[in-house]
Amino acid sequence: MLPPWFFPGLFVANNSEKQAELQLINEVLRGNTQSFASLVEKYWGLVFSIVSRYIKNRETAEDICQEVFISAFSGLASYRCEYRFSPWLAKIAVNKSLEHIRREKSAVFVDVDLDLFVSNLPSPEESIDQSQLFDECLAILSDDWQIMFILRHGLELSYLEIAQVFDVPVGTVKSLMFRIRKQLKDVFEKRAQREELVLSSGGRD
Amino acid sequence: MSGNCLTPERMQEYLDNSLSVSEREDVVAHLEGCEKCQRGLVAFASIFKLAAGSAHKQMGAKVSHNSLAAVMKRIQNSQQSAPVAANPGAGNDSDFFVWLKWLLIPALAVIMLLVSSMGKKKAGDFPENNPLQQPFSLAENMVVPVMGKLPPGVTDRITLNREVRLAEDAILLVAAAQHKFKFFNGAVFAMSQNEITLAYGAATFDLTGLHQGFRVKTPVVTVTPLGTSFELALKNWGAVFTLHSGRAELVSSSGLQRSPAVGQTLYVTNDGSFSERLPQPESLSLPVQSAPQQQSSPTGSTSSSPDNLIDSF
Hints:
The structure holds two protein chains of two kinds. Chain A is mainly alpha-helical. Helices cover 73% and strands 0% of the residues of chain A. By secondary structure, chain B is α+β, with helices and mostly antiparallel strands. Helix content of chain B is 29%, strand content 26%. Chain B has helices spanning 8-16, 21-33, 35-58, 65-80, 95-117, 306-311; strands at residues 141-147, 164-165, 171-176, 179-191, 195-206, 215-217, 221-235, 238-252, 257-258, 265-269, 274-275. In chain B, strands 1, 2, 3, 4, 5, 6, 7, 8, 9, 10 and 11 form an eleven-stranded mixed beta sheet that branches. The interface between A and B is large, with 70 and 73 residues.
């Protein structure tokens, strides 16, 4: 019989990272503020990617990022260690951004129109790689959707954790994200068809 | 093959890895004979890949030296400007107000504690509208055989209040709510709404979401974890507990309590005493359990009903 540590699995890897993070948080709570710098360095990219979706001016976005970390620092005692730190921080980033632009949260989940996607696509003659095309498609989505894609695919947050960040039902996040992905897939397939058409018509000339 | 073709949602669930074992097997079986769905899945996989690439690119911003310095300076300033406790015995004109402040602060703290215990939500609590705040339950669970076969009577989930017996060489992963449990060493266990009873073998527990009221019971010790990952193995002389992260409270069968430190291993003998070292053979009492294969129940009962398993503790 092999020992359990022979099967590291998911939670051994997650635990070591989570444990290191909890240790940093504990150090900060014990008064070692310098440990907080490590958290800032680790999560600046995440926070900036969220804030900059809402606030287009880079300098202002950086100021808001600072605000986010100051808030996280002052609220660290209320952070509950059974949750992951990143969604907690993401929630502060979303709230701070919305607070700054004083926008109604009802703007979340603006529906996406496939025609809008298609009409915004670069023509097949234009040389554009897939990732560039994907970024352009993503840019058409609402700010909140772009953030959700970052949280899901970049940070691998669960649908539940994303729902917590935006205070919406988990089913809403899941079903709408499924639909956006489906639309993106259709867009890429349509573009591939158009490229084929261009190539074949070019071949006839 | 088109009659039972996979829906776009099913394909994404497959790529999200959110299907049960049997659902996954169904998807794989269908894919083997359906080129259309294979193409669809490949297209979705490329969207997932592009999304991950794009997200990582977006998250790639590094904090500038100036921004980091600004954050740290503001934190230090906020700490310096925070009210510093005046020396109450300094004996100047404002002594009365200083003493008044010292009296008022604890009183306010008590009031705030009372208010928060009356169910008022704390401002900094995450998340304010937490879907996890629904009653904690292990009922919605999913099993994944890590090694060996699924235990008898288990298909894709563990039925509550029913004894589960693992083969000696099997390892079973159970995911419930946000938590993951791995059972091995021929584990015999039962799950209720918020409790796992481990009667034999060993298990690891990884709790990452709300689990208020969750407990792990064994014949010799009951564990109440608080944001925790830990490992528990039953031996013929007692149990071994190792805390990997978070906190946990242990109460032995004799009523003794312990809260081990992270990384600490505690040994609990059958008589309910704790030790930080592996107990020596002469100090051990008679075993309370033997291998489940030698008797119909790990607790000596002839019935395999969950009631007997749980009640006998």
